[in-house]
Amino acid sequence: MPVLAESPPMVPPRTRSLVSTSGAEQAIKAFFGGNALVALLVLALITVFLFREGFGFFGQNLNNLRLYRSAGLEYVDFIRVEAEKHSELTRALNDLRLRQFQKMQIEGVAPEQANASLATFDEFATAFSDTSEPLNGLVSDLSEQASALKEQLFAQAEAGATAGAPPVERDAALAVLRAGTQQYDQAVSGVSTGVDQLLSTAPPLPEAKLQQTFDKWKQRARDYVAQLPAAGEKLRAWSPDTPVPWYRAISAFLFGHDWITASFWQDWYGIRPLLVGSIMVSLVALFFAVPLGVASAVYVSEIASRHEKRIIKPYIEFISAIPSVVLGFFGIAVVGTAVRAISELPMFSWVSFFPISERLNVFTAGLLLALMAVPTIFTLAEDALRNVPRGFKEASYALGANRLQTIARVLVPASLSGIVSAILLGLGRVIGETMVVLLCAGNRIDIPDFTQGLGAFFQPVHTMTGIIAQEMGEVVRGSIHYRALFMVGLVLFTITLLINYFAQKLVARYRMSIG
Amino acid sequence: MTSVRPHLRRSRIIERIAFWAFRIATYIVLAFATYIFLDIGIKGARTVFTTTAPFVNTTFLFDRPQTLYVFEHEGQKMTLGDTDFRAWKETHGEPAVDPTTVAYSAGGIWPCIVGTALLVVGSMVLALFVGISSAIYLSEYSRNGRFIKLVRIAILNLAGVPSIVFGLFGFGLFVIFFGWNVSLLAGWFTLGLMILPAIITASEESLRAVPQGLREGSLALGATKWQTIRKNVLPYALPGILTSSILGIARVAGETAPIMFTAAYAMRDEMPWQVSRASDFVFQGVMALPYHIYVVSSKIPQNEYTERVQYGAAFVFLALVMLIALTSIVLREKSRSRLSW
Amino acid sequence: MVSLLEMPQAVSKSPTRDAAQLPAQQNDTAMIEIDRVKFAYGTNTVLHDVTLNVPPKAVTAFIGPSGCGKTTLLRCINRMNDLVDGAAITQGAIRIQGTDINTPGLDVVELRRRVGMVFQKSNPFPKSIYDNIAYGLRIAGVTKRSLIDEAVEKSLRASALWDEVKDRLNVSGYGLSGGQQQRLCIARALAVEPEIILMDEPCSALDPIATAKVEELIHHLKQHYTIVIVTHNMQQAGRVSDNTAFFYLGRLIEFADTRKIFSNPSQKQTEDYITGRFG
Ligand SMILES: Nc1ncnc2c1ncn2[C@@H]1O[C@H](COP(=O)(O)OP(=O)(O)OP(=O)(O)O)[C@@H](O)[C@H]1O
Ligand SMILES: [Mg+2]
């Protein structure tokens, strides 16, 4: 052993006094703190900016709605609604005819013969369609006037600040417009007599089932005629000066069922069709992703051999890295076509809404999104399952339960909140996904027709994310449309934040409960 | 024991069936994904690889996108890219019938590759610098007060905000409010911010995974805080930070929505370095692979002429992103086995 | 064989510096003065009015039932509790050679360099054995390889680990057994030559042979160092310490010469604990 005594002190003499603080340390801390502050500020800025740009929407939308009333567009739309109801009835007739025709085809009737036998029905349909002439004419006349007035009022409002704009003779213009009430009454009486007459001479349809539908239709037509005068009352009661309450700006956004932009008539910013689209796509995605994701989590954590596990786990994580735009492209190139091809198979002919007409629809997008959600759900659910204390499992085995019973009665219940939060985070991912829905959901801004039942899931929709991606590039900064898109973004932001928040709360509770 | 009681046998059968159901569910997922990889891999490989040396289609990889001209000449069908078509016209004159044009379908995707690389590098530098620094502050310096807890929750939640919302924000703030227009700079900031919460969260997690004992041991030896962090915390947290960063790269590279209206052009003839002044560099928009894929899959039809660029671009992009993701997964598996407390 | 007894004064103490630095209230008999200390984790007060003078160059043992605050008090001495959020001395003071260690502006780093610590749970760094020990020197600015080599050997010998690891100084400290790890941590603390060494149950993970080695080591070390040791092992306290402090529920019940405590405690509680009637 060397002589320790000979070694000199190793630690350099302490030159610093005990009482001192290191400036460098402070600087380093300040540097990191500064960075954290920047990160925080910028992230806060996002939120503030979203709100700032979004909230301006309500003021503008209120003006938009006020102008809609004061220029009489609302008035004209009362009549337009009636005219549209009429054309809807006409469409139903045409649909009826088509079905009858198809039926005959299936029964082997030659097309010419079928057409011939439906000739009286066609006459009837045309005549019915014609009864709307006076209404349609009225609408188009009044539309022009109202549009012109709106233009003038808008210009006046724009120039208002600079003054000197020619005063708009609004009262005169509105008086002309309101003469429409009289014309409407006349049109209504024309329509009712016309329809009544027609209904009494309606031809029968050969197919009993269709005849039933036709009878129902006749009832609808009668109801329609009966409620026409009510609209007249609305017209009389309408006043351009009734104030539009402020909350209409909000409710029109949250509950409005039209998203119509850059229209020559009236722009509507109702989020409902987009919200419904997003929700439907997410539902389809979760419908597939939840069972698949949870099942594969159970499989990998409890059933698979070590060898399988080593491959499957990274592979599923790997899937989560597939860029969404590639998935979207794959949807367009392969999945959409495949879905439609499958719907055309004879084995599915019993499904009432098959074959589908659009290859890009809710289902196609949802299917692809499911693939995006599965890795999220899988990873987190597997985590939750794996973290169930061994003791639980062993106790169950010790009681003679087999593996399935242990999984179903012990493991899954014990990790349930973890699994639910996994599903929530999967939902968050799906609802915020853009490219797949933009490419594959069909982009039709319309609430699907739920009368078709599940068929609604095979119709094209537009989504909140999709609409932002599609329209943001073309809007003018500060315009109502621009702000409306920010509002949509804000809704999306709020929804995902809520989902995340609850998911994390659940996880926290889960951690606590298993200690 | 001579026989298994019947209800035991039944439950065994049920168990077997259930396990098969789980197995099938798992393999459905794997099969679906594999089908995607194969479909894009096989059809894309036709564009990207060739049978003759150098075995890759250099035109496709290193050329810019061009419009494709399809026409008939002397009974032969001609498909020529823009440049070739012009050269052809020099010698042959205008074709008899006006050619059909298909946008983007000739040439290659070089500017998109370059643009994506630029976007990824810039935004990751930004996000990693700020993100790791913030994580160090949060995990090592900050006191665990209520405010910091709130900050942590906020950051965690922001990590789940959809990328399109970040795109919206980037568009409103950088492109319009700051007047940067569609530019690399706006893209960097948008993508960087989008990934920032994830980087902070993951880095902080890695830092916290380093046992407290190591910090205390170091401090007790008279190390300063920074010495402790630099020598005894960061080195052990680095593998974790690295894997999450690489995963972040994969995400940044793979996102389309945030750059659609902040940084990406559908078509641009100049390459990014062809700018008149150096300061213009950051204020130019670029082409980007994911946006290009979006454009070629939604703005041009699906047919024999477009398949080349559609599948080719999807293949190259998928291969790049998956390579990055694979690196991250492999790295993590490695570091997981190496470091365990 | 030269024993540790011949180790030189490890810490260079120039009289001028001491005089300048350590103000008037210097207490000749105490290295560490713990003066009416009250300590709380948030609102949970775990030390009540603890007053105790740790004499220099001697071994002082802290004993007491689990949870009575021994570790807490130990960690107060090198201000390790700064790392725990919300933990603070709410009343009283701790002075080392007369300087209040909680004086605002006091350099904690310097304090900790002078007050070494061995933790209850051994915590070697995931570095090689060599680097583990060199760590403290390197951060203190020692770069000369030969100096470090020397210090590594010296500390490893001092902690009775040298013979076991001298051929594998480059393997990870994690590769050692629990007892070896603990001795590595002791060696690591010795390498920077502190004046005070705080040991929190240094033998809790050791077998009897390793324990004996550590005890022997402590015995030698006290020639040069002031040592405070927490232990649950009564025999150990009896064997190694000069003075013993008995804590119960955050209060110092008795502090006296070890022989006295073990042979003739003045408090009933102490006697009960020592004889194993509770705790
Ligand atoms: N970080 C902490 N935060 C809050 N309370 C703590 C913390 N550490 C210890 N305590 C509490 O302080 C009290 C004293 O703990 P301490 O660790 O000092 O006990 P000890 O005497 O060292 O016990 P042991 O012999 O088991 O090590 C205990 O009641 C404990 O619950
Ligand atoms: Mg203790």
How does this model look, in words?
The complex is a heterotrimer of chains A (515), B (341) and C (279). Chain A is mostly helical and 515 residues long. Chain A folds into two domains: 72-239, no CATH class; 273-514, Orthogonal Bundle (MetI-like fold). Helices cover 73% and strands 1% of the residues of chain A. In chain A, a hairpin with a 7-residue loop joins β1 and β2. In chain A, α10 (272-303) crosses α13 (362-386). Chain B has 341 residues and is mainly alpha-helical. Chain B has three domains: 1-48; 65-107; 110-337, MetI-like fold (Orthogonal Bundle). Chain B has helices at 6-48, 58-62, 82-92, 110-141, 146-158, 163-177, 184-209, 212-220, 225-254, 257-260, 289-298, 307-338, and strands at 65-73, 76-81, 100-107. Chain B has a three-stranded antiparallel beta sheet. Chain B starts with 5 loop residues before the first helix and ends with a helix. The model of chain B has no long low-confidence stretch (mean pLDDT 87). Chain C is α/β, with parallel strands linked by helices and 279 residues long. In chain C, the strands form two sheets. A six-stranded mixed beta sheet of chain C has the order 6-7-8-3-9-10, with helices on both faces. In chain C, strands 2-1-4-5 form a four-stranded antiparallel beta sheet, covered by helices on one side. The longest helix of chain C is centred in the middle third of the chain and has 14 residues, at 145-158. In chain C, 47% of the residues are buried. Classes of the chains: A mainly alpha (515), B mainly alpha (341), C alpha/beta (279). The complex binds adenosine-5'-triphosphate and magnesium ion. Residues 41, 44, 46, 66-72, 84 of chain C line the site of adenosine-5'-triphosphate (ATP). Chain A: It comes from uncultured Chthoniobacterales bacterium. Chain A: Pfam families: BPD_transp_1.
The residue ranges of chain B in which pLDDT falls below 50 over 5 or more consecutive positions are none
Can you tell me the number of structural domains of chain A? 2
State the secondary-structure class of chain A.
mainly alpha
Q: Give the strand line-up of the largest sheet of chain B.
A: 2-1-3
What is the correct CATH architecture of the largest domain in chain B? Orthogonal Bundle
Structural class of chain B: mainly alpha
Sequence stretches where pLDDT stays below 50 over 5 or more residues of chain A:
1-21
State the CATH topology of the largest domain in chain B: MetI-like fold
Helix residue percentage of chain B: 55-70%
User: Sheet bearing the most strands of chain A, described?
Assistant: 2 strands, antiparallel
In CATH, the architecture of the largest domain in chain A is Orthogonal Bundle
Strand order of the largest sheet of chain A: 1-2
The top level CATH class name of the largest domain in chain A:
Mainly Alpha
Largest sheet of chain B: 3 strands, antiparallel
CATH class of the largest domain in chain B: Mainly Alpha
| Assembly level | heterotrimer
Work out the number of β strands of chain B.
3
CATH topology of the largest domain in chain A: MetI-like fold
Number of strands of chain A: 2
What is the tally of helical segments of chain B? 12
